[in-house]
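// run 5 | inverse folding | seed 20
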């Protein structure tokens, strides 16, 4: 059987906005691509629907949320991202619907990206593991909000708040998809991707008894190498790209 090769991501853009559900969602796969983009002088901002406050069983949400926010901001800084916003939806029970679409559409209007990045919005990870409701809700709402952001008659209250329509989103790139179409060379960004994931040390330490750096490096390099088999043998980060 012939394996379909992944195409290079478009590079004729200047601004990207990554929208995900939780702290660490981007670091489990996207950070190497983001590091390479910021190296090239592109602007990337992060928007997180929740603060991940329900993600650590041994730390109550009131303490966990601020801790994970600090880890996320530090993690973003490692790969050259300084703008990190939190939408304050509730971790674990984020709901797909107009409220979430409105908040994401507002973020798109604020940041005016050409490329929007999100995480797998489908029910499973490759048909093997069940996806979380937050990932599904936020991923799907992001795909819809990319269109909502350009329509002044959807959420007209945003115009009243000074957020004019932005119809400049040209692509939505979905990370973690089981049907990727494009990829970014991860070679130059891999070391920073590892360090970026390691900033989520509190979360990693409850996930595994393995040394955190060994765990982070092994996870990211293995996935990049597997993706690279469809990208000319270069370690890579894969995306399913939707054009608008």
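// decoded
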């Amino acid at each position: 059987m012939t394996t379909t090769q992944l195409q290079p991501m478009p590079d004729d853009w200047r601004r990207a906005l990554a929208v995900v559900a939780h702290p660490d969602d981007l670091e489990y796969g996207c950070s190497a691509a983001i590091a390479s983009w910021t190296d090239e002088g592109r602007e990337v901002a992060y928007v997180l629907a929740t603060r991940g406050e329900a993600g650590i069983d041994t730390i109550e949400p009131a303490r966990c949320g601020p801790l994970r926010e600090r880890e996320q901001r530090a993690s973003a800084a490692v790969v050259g991202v300084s703008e990190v916003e939190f939408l304050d939806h509730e971790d674990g029970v984020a709901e797909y619907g107009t409220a979430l679409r409105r908040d994401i559409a507002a973020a798109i209007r604020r940041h005016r990206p050409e490329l929007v990045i999100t995480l797998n919005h489908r029910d499973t990870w490759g048909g093997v593991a069940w996806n979380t409701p937050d990932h599904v809700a936020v991923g799907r709402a992001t795909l819809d909000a990319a269109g909502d952001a350009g329509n002044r008659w959807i959420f007209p209250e945003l115009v009243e708040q000074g957020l004019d329509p932005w119809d400049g989103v040209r692509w939505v790139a979905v990370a973690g998809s089981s049907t990727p179409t494009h990829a970014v060379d991860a070679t130059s960004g891999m070391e920073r991707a590892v360090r970026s994931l390691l900033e989520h040390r509190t979360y990693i330490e409850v996930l595994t008894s393995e040394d955190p750096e060994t765990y982070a490096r092994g996870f990211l390099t293995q996935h990049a190498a597997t993706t690279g088999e469809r990208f000319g043998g270069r370690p890579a980060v894969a995306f399913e790209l939707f054009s608008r």
